[in-house]
Amino acid sequence: MEITDVAAVEQIRAGSTEIFRVLVERHSRAVFRLAYRMTGNQQDAEDTVQETFLRAYRQLHHFDGRSAFSTWIYRIGANCAIDLLRGRKKREADGVDLLERQPAHEPSPERLTASSQVARMLGPALDELSETERAAFVMRHYEGLCIEEIGRVLGVQPNAAKHSVFRAVQKLRRALEPAMGMAR
Fold first, then answer.
1. pLDDT: is 106 or 81 the higher one?
2. What's the total number of domains in the chain?
3. Is residue 99 located within the same domain as residue 171?
């Protein structure tokens, strides 16, 4: 019988720390997908996943079970990715040369399929979004989360989450408009 997330959390709190591995295995792929789509970089996504689960382990006493564990870990993951993006922007503003923008040695499946002009334009267009807009857009359009879930992950009201998705879509439409005109 498979252990539930809540049962795993209770066992960890009771001292069975090795069960945390179950939570990592169960949720790391989803956190990676979110982080990769937010950061646009495989190494950054891997770092974000590690930081996410490190923070989650340290803050497990804050998990109260009012929301699903997946929502809680997504929120931590989104915040870790946002922190990384903010740090990157600060370093870029300070003129630091970032090696993390270099492509991975082996292309991921997402990179292999991203060969069209729209895909080439999407990365820079996503970079122009605020961290919150980007997180909301990725969760809605890549991960398929509902607006209420996005609001819970970002710690905002559903209307604010909906507005962030809307603003992101509008900005991306404007940025991708030249490529869309060529496709017609």
1. 81
2. 2
3. no
